[in-house]
Design brief:
Blueprint (H helix, E strand, L loop, with lengths): L1 H15 L4 E4 L2 E4 L19 E2 L2 E2 L8 H11 L7 E4 L9 H14 L3 E6 L3 H4 L5 H8 L3 E5 L5 H8 L6 H15 L1 E7 L6 H8 L4 E5 L6
Parallel strand pairs: 2-5, 5-6, 6-7, 7-8, 8-9
Antiparallel strand pairs: 1-2, 3-4
Helix pairs in contact: 2-3, 3-5
Bound molecules: iron/sulfur cluster.
The site of iron/sulfur cluster has 11 residues, from loops.
Length: about 220
Amino acid sequence: MIVRKKEIKSAYLILFMPAIVYWSEDNLYLNITNRCSNNCYFCFRNFISGVWGFNLKLRKEPTPNEIIKNLQRVINQRHWKEVIFCGFGEPTERLDCLLDVTKWIKNYHKSLVRLNTNGQAYLLNPGRSVINELEETGLDKVSISLNAHNKEVYNKISNPKFENTFESVLGFIEESKRNLDTEITVVTIPEADIKKIKKIVGEEVKFRKRIYEPHF
Ligand code: SF4
Protein backbone atom coordinates (compact mmCIF):
# COMPACT_ATOMS: atom_id res chain seq x y z
CA MET A 1 0.00 0.00 0.00
CA ILE A 2 2.85 2.38 0.94
CA VAL A 3 4.66 1.52 -2.33
CA ARG A 4 1.53 2.23 -4.30
CA LYS A 5 1.17 5.66 -2.71
CA LYS A 6 4.79 6.43 -3.63
CA GLU A 7 4.19 5.31 -7.21
CA ILE A 8 1.15 7.55 -7.46
CA LYS A 9 3.10 10.44 -5.97
CA SER A 10 5.98 10.09 -8.46
CA ALA A 11 3.56 9.78 -11.41
CA TYR A 12 1.83 12.94 -10.15
CA LEU A 13 5.19 14.75 -9.91
CA ILE A 14 6.19 13.76 -13.46
CA LEU A 15 2.86 14.82 -14.92
CA PHE A 16 2.16 18.02 -13.00
CA MET A 17 5.35 19.49 -11.51
CA PRO A 18 7.02 21.85 -14.00
CA ALA A 19 9.97 20.07 -15.60
CA ILE A 20 13.35 21.77 -15.86
CA VAL A 21 14.96 18.62 -17.27
CA TYR A 22 12.97 16.24 -19.47
CA TRP A 23 13.76 13.56 -22.01
CA SER A 24 12.69 11.60 -25.03
CA GLU A 25 14.47 8.51 -26.35
CA ASP A 26 18.22 9.20 -25.96
CA ASN A 27 18.08 12.99 -25.78
CA LEU A 28 17.93 15.08 -22.61
CA TYR A 29 16.29 18.51 -22.79
CA LEU A 30 16.61 21.63 -20.62
CA ASN A 31 13.65 23.95 -20.09
CA ILE A 32 15.31 27.05 -18.57
CA THR A 33 12.77 29.76 -19.39
CA ASN A 34 9.25 30.32 -20.70
CA ARG A 35 10.12 33.76 -22.07
CA CYS A 36 10.49 34.30 -25.80
CA SER A 37 11.02 37.38 -27.97
CA ASN A 38 8.72 35.88 -30.61
CA ASN A 39 5.08 34.91 -30.45
CA CYS A 40 4.77 32.42 -33.30
CA TYR A 41 1.21 31.45 -34.16
CA PHE A 42 2.28 27.79 -34.41
CA CYS A 43 4.16 27.67 -31.10
CA PHE A 44 3.34 24.55 -29.06
CA ARG A 45 3.11 26.49 -25.82
CA ASN A 46 -0.02 28.30 -27.06
CA PHE A 47 -1.90 25.01 -27.19
CA ILE A 48 -0.41 22.44 -24.81
CA SER A 49 1.20 22.45 -21.35
CA GLY A 50 4.07 20.16 -22.20
CA VAL A 51 5.34 17.21 -24.19
CA TRP A 52 5.96 13.49 -23.62
CA GLY A 53 4.16 13.57 -20.26
CA PHE A 54 6.24 16.47 -18.91
CA ASN A 55 4.73 19.79 -17.85
CA LEU A 56 6.88 22.58 -19.34
CA LYS A 57 4.97 25.54 -17.88
CA LEU A 58 7.44 26.89 -15.33
CA ARG A 59 6.16 28.63 -12.20
CA LYS A 60 9.50 30.40 -11.87
CA GLU A 61 12.78 30.35 -13.76
CA PRO A 62 15.27 27.93 -12.23
CA THR A 63 18.69 29.19 -11.13
CA PRO A 64 21.78 27.62 -12.74
CA ASN A 65 22.30 25.64 -9.50
CA GLU A 66 18.75 24.30 -9.60
CA ILE A 67 19.21 23.25 -13.23
CA ILE A 68 22.50 21.51 -12.41
CA LYS A 69 20.90 19.72 -9.42
CA ASN A 70 18.08 18.48 -11.66
CA LEU A 71 20.63 17.40 -14.27
CA GLN A 72 22.69 15.51 -11.70
CA ARG A 73 19.67 13.28 -10.96
CA VAL A 74 19.45 12.01 -14.54
CA ILE A 75 22.61 12.73 -16.52
CA ASN A 76 24.33 9.50 -15.44
CA GLN A 77 21.22 7.33 -15.78
CA ARG A 78 22.09 6.42 -19.36
CA HIS A 79 24.21 7.54 -22.30
CA TRP A 80 22.43 10.60 -23.66
CA LYS A 81 23.18 11.36 -27.28
CA GLU A 82 22.73 15.10 -26.75
CA VAL A 83 21.78 17.52 -24.00
CA ILE A 84 19.65 20.18 -25.66
CA PHE A 85 18.59 23.63 -24.48
CA CYS A 86 15.03 23.54 -25.74
CA GLY A 87 11.88 24.20 -23.74
CA PHE A 88 8.84 26.45 -23.75
CA GLY A 89 10.95 29.59 -24.34
CA GLU A 90 14.09 31.03 -25.92
CA PRO A 91 17.24 29.92 -24.02
CA THR A 92 19.28 33.02 -24.98
CA GLU A 93 16.79 35.11 -22.96
CA ARG A 94 19.03 33.80 -20.12
CA LEU A 95 22.45 33.94 -21.71
CA ASP A 96 24.51 33.81 -18.49
CA CYS A 97 22.52 30.87 -17.17
CA LEU A 98 22.90 29.08 -20.53
CA LEU A 99 26.68 29.67 -20.48
CA ASP A 100 27.07 28.52 -16.84
CA VAL A 101 25.10 25.30 -17.33
CA THR A 102 26.88 24.48 -20.60
CA LYS A 103 30.27 24.94 -18.92
CA TRP A 104 29.22 22.61 -16.10
CA ILE A 105 28.07 19.91 -18.55
CA LYS A 106 31.23 20.17 -20.66
CA ASN A 107 33.45 20.04 -17.54
CA TYR A 108 31.86 16.99 -15.96
CA HIS A 109 30.26 14.96 -18.77
CA LYS A 110 31.00 13.80 -22.27
CA SER A 111 27.56 14.50 -23.74
CA LEU A 112 27.22 16.71 -26.77
CA VAL A 113 25.45 19.98 -25.94
CA ARG A 114 23.16 21.69 -28.41
CA LEU A 115 21.35 25.03 -28.30
CA ASN A 116 18.01 25.34 -30.06
CA THR A 117 17.38 29.03 -30.64
CA ASN A 118 15.31 31.57 -32.53
CA GLY A 119 18.59 33.35 -33.44
CA GLN A 120 17.74 36.61 -31.65
CA ALA A 121 20.55 36.48 -29.08
CA TYR A 122 22.15 39.73 -30.27
CA LEU A 123 18.89 41.63 -29.83
CA LEU A 124 18.33 40.05 -26.43
CA ASN A 125 21.91 40.64 -25.25
CA PRO A 126 23.15 43.90 -26.76
CA GLY A 127 26.88 44.48 -26.49
CA ARG A 128 27.68 40.82 -25.85
CA SER A 129 29.85 38.64 -28.12
CA VAL A 130 27.29 35.87 -28.02
CA ILE A 131 28.78 33.46 -30.55
CA ASN A 132 32.29 33.78 -29.07
CA GLU A 133 30.92 33.30 -25.56
CA LEU A 134 29.03 30.19 -26.64
CA GLU A 135 32.11 28.83 -28.40
CA GLU A 136 34.23 29.35 -25.26
CA THR A 137 31.91 27.11 -23.21
CA GLY A 138 32.56 24.17 -25.55
CA LEU A 139 28.99 24.13 -26.88
CA ASP A 140 28.88 21.55 -29.69
CA LYS A 141 25.98 22.55 -31.92
CA VAL A 142 23.47 25.29 -32.65
CA SER A 143 20.08 24.72 -34.28
CA ILE A 144 18.57 27.98 -35.48
CA SER A 145 14.90 28.20 -36.31
CA LEU A 146 14.07 30.15 -39.47
CA ASN A 147 10.60 29.74 -40.92
CA ALA A 148 10.46 32.63 -43.37
CA HIS A 149 12.45 33.86 -46.37
CA ASN A 150 11.77 37.57 -45.85
CA LYS A 151 10.95 40.12 -43.18
CA GLU A 152 7.25 40.44 -44.07
CA VAL A 153 6.58 36.72 -43.71
CA TYR A 154 8.76 36.52 -40.57
CA ASN A 155 6.90 39.34 -38.85
CA LYS A 156 3.53 37.92 -39.83
CA ILE A 157 4.13 34.40 -38.54
CA SER A 158 6.37 35.11 -35.53
CA ASN A 159 5.27 38.52 -34.21
CA PRO A 160 8.76 39.44 -32.96
CA LYS A 161 9.19 41.90 -30.12
CA PHE A 162 12.13 43.74 -31.76
CA GLU A 163 12.48 45.88 -34.88
CA ASN A 164 14.75 44.40 -37.57
CA THR A 165 14.56 40.93 -36.10
CA PHE A 166 14.79 39.17 -39.44
CA GLU A 167 18.05 40.96 -40.33
CA SER A 168 19.51 40.21 -36.90
CA VAL A 169 18.62 36.50 -37.17
CA LEU A 170 20.38 36.33 -40.57
CA GLY A 171 23.46 37.97 -39.02
CA PHE A 172 23.41 35.47 -36.15
CA ILE A 173 23.20 32.60 -38.64
CA GLU A 174 26.18 33.92 -40.62
CA GLU A 175 28.36 34.27 -37.53
CA SER A 176 27.26 30.92 -36.13
CA LYS A 177 28.09 29.20 -39.45
CA ARG A 178 31.64 30.59 -39.30
CA ASN A 179 32.32 29.50 -35.72
CA LEU A 180 30.06 26.64 -34.62
CA ASP A 181 28.48 23.47 -35.96
CA THR A 182 25.23 25.03 -37.21
CA GLU A 183 21.99 23.76 -38.65
CA ILE A 184 18.85 25.58 -39.73
CA THR A 185 15.47 24.15 -38.82
CA VAL A 186 12.23 24.98 -40.60
CA VAL A 187 8.75 24.11 -39.38
CA THR A 188 6.69 22.98 -42.35
CA ILE A 189 3.97 25.62 -41.97
CA PRO A 190 2.32 26.67 -45.26
CA GLU A 191 4.12 30.05 -45.22
CA ALA A 192 7.62 28.51 -45.11
CA ASP A 193 9.11 28.51 -48.61
CA ILE A 194 11.92 26.04 -48.00
CA LYS A 195 13.68 26.59 -51.33
CA LYS A 196 13.89 30.34 -50.74
CA ILE A 197 14.98 29.91 -47.11
CA LYS A 198 17.78 27.56 -48.22
CA LYS A 199 18.86 30.14 -50.76
CA ILE A 200 19.25 32.95 -48.23
CA VAL A 201 21.05 30.90 -45.56
CA GLY A 202 23.36 29.20 -48.09
CA GLU A 203 23.06 25.78 -49.65
CA GLU A 204 26.09 24.50 -47.71
CA VAL A 205 24.52 24.82 -44.26
CA LYS A 206 22.84 21.78 -42.64
CA PHE A 207 19.09 21.95 -42.91
CA ARG A 208 16.35 20.07 -41.04
CA LYS A 209 12.59 20.13 -41.53
CA ARG A 210 10.34 19.90 -38.48
CA ILE A 211 6.90 18.59 -39.28
CA TYR A 212 4.12 21.05 -38.45
CA GLU A 213 1.37 19.55 -36.32
CA PRO A 214 -1.56 21.94 -35.98
CA HIS A 215 -3.07 21.92 -32.47
CA PHE A 216 -6.37 23.51 -33.41
S1 SF4 B 1 10.50 31.19 -31.38
FE1 SF4 B 1 10.05 29.12 -30.66
S2 SF4 B 1 9.53 29.33 -28.46
FE2 SF4 B 1 9.46 31.37 -29.39
S3 SF4 B 1 7.28 31.66 -29.91
FE3 SF4 B 1 8.33 30.87 -31.75
S4 SF4 B 1 8.08 28.61 -31.67
FE4 SF4 B 1 7.62 29.45 -29.60
